[in-house]
Amino acid sequence: MKLILVSHPLCPYVQRAAISLTEKGVPFERVDIDLADKPVWFKAISPLGKVPLLRVQRNGEETTIFESAVILEFLEETHADPLHPADPYARARHRAWIEFGSATLNAIGRFYSASTEAGFLAESRALSGMFDRLEAELADGADRSGLWFGGDSFSLVDAVYGPVFRYLDAFDTIGDFDILDNKPRVKAWRQSLGDRASIRDAVAPDYPQRLHAFLQAKGSFLSTLIHRNDQAGSFALARSA
Ligand SMILES: N[C@@H](CCC(=O)N[C@@H](CS)C(=O)NCC(=O)O)C(=O)O
Asked: Which of 51, 54, 207 to mutate to test the pocket of ligand 1 (most atoms within 8 A of CB)?
């Protein structure tokens, strides 16, 4: 079986699939496309026009799987070294928090796209509130003894939040937005994820520069902070609220 992950260098949904493949030790080829100029072959096989796609080639035939959550489940069903817990209740909890991870990525998108300062501060509070939920979940989790969401075993939830925290690394270089204030468990988890090789290696070395350029070009309130930083060295966000 040959696996090709159709990707974009910045996409967090691609990263979760790459992390799962790496954790399972499954070889795969990664093909980046330009989302601003989608190739014809990509449009033909991507029903939603989105990455990631997993092209699975075997016995001379090819199947294309779209939607990252579906790709993750497919890899669980076709490859060893499970990244989901065996217990159905724990598995349901993990799947639900993966969904919450996708909602958090949407909130991150609203945060970096907000056009006004008021909108930006509102999105920052909303994002912080989502991490409060996560903090409470990490405190409640019966299996919270180890480094990972599920305790001692790295799971798909970890694969999903590695790319989430990578955005916060970029935001930290722009200003202090207090997003993880008073969330010690989330902070410790973020640290563990940042040290994991599969998560580190899910992006190319030039990822920070690429993301910075993307955020700078967005035309959003965050972009204006980047411009101010470039002019003034560093910037402390004046909080009106
Ligand atoms: N629900 C999808 C979301 C994937 C997604 O939003 N991908 C973005 C890039 S990160 C994309 O391809 N957007 C299409 C575009 O920019 O035209 C999944 O989980 O795979």
From this structure: 51
Find the residues whose C-beta lies inside 6 A of ligand 1: 8, 11, 13, 35, 49-52, 67-69
Q: Whose CA is nearest to atom 10 of ligand 1?
A: 11
Three-state DSSP class for residue 124: helix
Nearest in space to 241 (alpha carbons), one of 123, 134, 71: 123
Extract the tokens encoding 19: 């992390």
Residue-range domain boundaries for the chain = 2-78, 88-200
CATH 1.20.1050.10 assigned to domain 88-200? The reply is yes
- Over residues 151-161, the pLDDT tens digits come to 999 999 999 99
Whether the model pTM is above 0.90: yes
When pLDDT is cut at 50, 70 and 90, the band that residue 235 belongs to is very low
